[in-house]
Amino acid sequence: MKKGNIFLLTVGIIAIISGLLFFYLKPMDAMPEALNAMKSDSTVKVDRTKWITFTPFSSPTVGFIFYPGAKVDPRAYAPEMNAISSHGFLTVIVPMPLNLAIFGVNEADEVIHDYPYIKKWVIGGHSLGGVMAVSYANNHRDKISGIILWAAYPDDQDDLSAFSIPVLVIYASNDGLATPQKIMEMKRLLPKDTQYVEIEGGNHAQFGWYGDQDGDNPATITRYAQQNIIVNASVNFLENISQSSK
């Protein structure tokens, strides 16, 4: 084969692989409702300099680091993070390399370093983001005061059953990906006093604002209703962390 043909073939193969990677890794777009929540107001300042950070005007001492779900535009969680922050908590959505938290499991290190005034950190995430959040907590037990999982559960290698850390798991009855059955099966890897909140009629995609998702089941409640439950449960958990002496 001539050198010119080899070069063209190589370029073609690279182009095909690049196209496939772009198609596979292209994030699910944030909906308009999410983009509207990316604006500062009288109660919360939004900063996109490094991460997507929501800071309340009330001197927060508890922070919530959030890892997005796989291939989801991180802005899709802005409405919930904004709402949670308005209750007095610093919330930080961490955009991930290639939109996959598996490639950024230790991103929380830099967040914690950059906000020394935060006394207690809670880490969490949605779906794969939640899995990686548990992994971070498991390997940095001295830095994390709590875990919040949205439609997520630990990987087998992250057994927290003997770890005395508060954990909140929020899951949905119609979730076709992190199914209720799988959530219950993986209880064995979490502390016995883990709190569980089931959203009747909710599904996987309505944990964010990015539309429908392959493999999911239809929800029988609105996205607003589902996220209201998510925000209230998360805020109650964070308030308990704030009041805890640990």
Q: Count of DSSP E strands?
A: 8
Class from secondary-structure proportions: alpha/beta
Oligomer: single chain
- Helix content range of the residues, please? 25-40%
The portion of residues forming beta strands comes to 15-25%
Q: Averaging pLDDT over every residue, what do you get?
A: 91
Note poorly predicted spans. Answer: 4-24
Amino- and carboxy-terminal Cα gap: 69 Å
Shape: globular
Using the CA coordinates, give the radius of gyration.
19 Å
List the helices and strands and how they pair.
Elements: H1 3-25, H2 32-36, E1 44-47, E2 52-56, E3 62-67, H3 78-85, E4 90-93, H4 108-114, E5 120-126, H5 128-139, E6 146-150, E7 167-172, H6 180-185, E8 195-199, H7 223-243
Helix pairs in contact: 3-7
Polypeptide structure, described:
- There is one protein chain.
- The protein has 246 residues and is an alpha/beta fold.
- Helices cover 33% and strands 17% of the residues.
- The protein has 7 helices and 8 strands, in the order H-H-E-E-E-H-E-H-E-H-E-E-H-E-H.
- It has helices spanning 3-25, 32-36, 78-85, 108-114, 128-139, 180-185, 223-243; strands spanning 44-47, 52-56, 62-67, 90-93, 120-126, 146-150, 167-172, 195-199.
- It has an 8-stranded mixed sheet, with helices on both faces.
- Helix 3 runs parallel beside helix 7 (223-243).
- It is globular.
- The chain starts with a helix and ends with a helix.
- The model is unreliable at 4-24 (pLDDT under 50).
